[in-house]
Amino acid sequence: MNETLPPKTCSIDRLVTKEAEVSKVLAGQKTACRRNGRYADIGETMDLQGSTFTVTKVYQQALGDLTVEDAKAEGHATIDEYRDSILSMHPGMPWLPQMKVWVHEFQKAE
Predict the structure, then answer these.
(1) Count of beta carbons in the 10 Å neighbourhood of residue 1
(2) Nearest 5°: phi and psi at 49?
(3) What is the dihedral of CA 33, 39, 43, 44, to 10 degrees?
(4) Which SUPFAM superfamilies match (predicted)?
(5) For the chain, what is the radius of gyration of the CA atoms?
(6) How open is the CA angle 5-78-86, to the nearest 5 degrees?
(7) Would you state the pLDDT for residue 1?
(8) Beta-bridge partners for 101
(9) What is the pLDDT of residue 43?
């Protein structure tokens, strides 16, 4: 998986900002973040409350291809719970199965 990624549309410090999401990352319950743009490069790091996390994968995914494992990586038990969480943060946003998002997977840096 070494294809060239398009330029970032935002910076990594905007990837995980909401307090509840930060807490999930710090607790190890959230290991991925989906965004409509690309916020990070593979190998880039983000700091959350003194802990450093390294981005391990960046790729596109259609919302209709989300699995329960994907929802769990986002810190939610089910796809419906994840969808409801996203839609509550983005009022008026449609949830379209064909809509593509950028997946950023990360892990705590050693």
Answers:
(1) 6
(2) 45, 45
(3) -110
(4) PUA domain-like
(5) 13
(6) 55
(7) 46
(8) 61
(9) 97
Phi, psi for 76 (deg, rounded to 5): -125, 150
pTM of the predicted protein model: 0.93
Name every residue whose Cβ is closer than 8 Å to that of residue 61 and which is 6 or more positions away in sequence.
Answer: 34, 70, 100, 101, 103
For the record, the structure tokens of 54 come out as 């390294």
**DSSP assignment, residue 65?**
G
Cα 95 from Cα 85, distance rounded (Å): 12
For residue 2, pLDDT beyond 60:
no
Q: Which pLDDT belongs to residue 110?
A: 80
Burial class (CB in 10 A: 0-12, 13-18, 19+), 27: exposed
